[in-house]
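Case study B.
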Amino acid sequence: MKITAQEEYGLRCVLRLAKAESGAVTLPEVAAAEGLSVPYVAKLMSVLRNAGMVDSVRGRAGGYHLTRPAEEIGLGSLLLTLGEPLFEETEYCQKHAGSEAPNGVCKNHSTCTLKSLWQTLEHWLRHTLDQITLADLIQHEGRLPELLRERLAAAVLDDEPQLVTLTVK
Amino acid sequence: MKITAQEEYGLRCVLRLAKAESGAVTLPEVAAAEGLSVPYVAKLMSVLRNAGMVDSVRGRAGGYHLTRPAEEIGLGSLLLTLGEPLFEETEYCQKHAGSEAPNGVCKNHSTCTLKSLWQTLEHWLRHTLDQITLADLIQHEGRLPELLRERLAAAVLDDEPQLVTLTVK
DNA sequence: AGGAATGTGTACTTTTTTGTCAAGTTTAGC
DNA sequence: GCTAAACTTGACAAAAAAGTACACATTCCT
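Model:
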């Protein structure tokens, strides 16, 4: 449960695009700014491009730019496209059945308690991270911890309005 | 950013110990129950033992047991001992300095915005997960999602009492 | 046209993580 | 004491992730 290299560096590359208000940013520019190799940045951009997060322009005056404004890109979705979900939904019960569930029987079975845990955690984590946008990371550089706490707290309210009531003083 | 095999299986093994109210559980018992090989369970237990989460008794009537009651073992701490933190605090700025910080200069530098993000996220994630104990996982098997939401919401209150006020209806 | 600067895509090498193997140590029971 | 059942440890093999290499395609500029 750690941030993978692809998530970390991918996010950094996207932030470079977000900082360049308009106009395309080239692979060499991003690579130089982040201290990464050009081919590696190309690989990261390929992932982001296939996910529809960035667009590219080929040719001499080419480069990359975001497909949406930085204000609309939440960290939860972005990190999910760069990495993987907390656990693989498919095949989960087959793989972890254990001796008590030899036939792949799983529903409501005690062995699969953890599936509920991971599902809930996954949903909650992505939803909460989506409260923070790329624009936030750029604008509030100095006061990130404070901003984060506010947004995290707000996510609880947003997610379960009928269950809890939250008041920010 | 996904649950590692060691975290998943380690947690499952610990749950087996927690379910066996008193008395030791042997490696073969855990391995059979979870469908894992005995040597692999031994490796996982070794990690847990070195972290002080479980104790072992050698010899013919030996086995493993928890060092603390299941009610006192939070998921955040447990998963942290089984896996790794979200990011490595040490060497972080050296590795990710990029071209704008060639001399290792980092404090308050824009390139290190992400460090604040990961730190805050790490603290918040572990703290929140610690609201859920091993005993919770065993007792509330069927209604885990509801329990989780309550605990997650409560964590916000607990973490920042002066910032937010939370009311559970 | 042609060359230089750019992105695209596949295959490969290196590193890290997973999981196994095998030899050794401890202890209860006979 | 001896054996069987248990834990301990370090080295090893397999799989996945990270990062590189290289040949190729596209476009601008002259």
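The helical segments of chain A are 5-19, 27-34, 38-50, 75-82, 92-95, 113-129, 134-139, 144-159. The remaining cases will be described in the next quarterly update.
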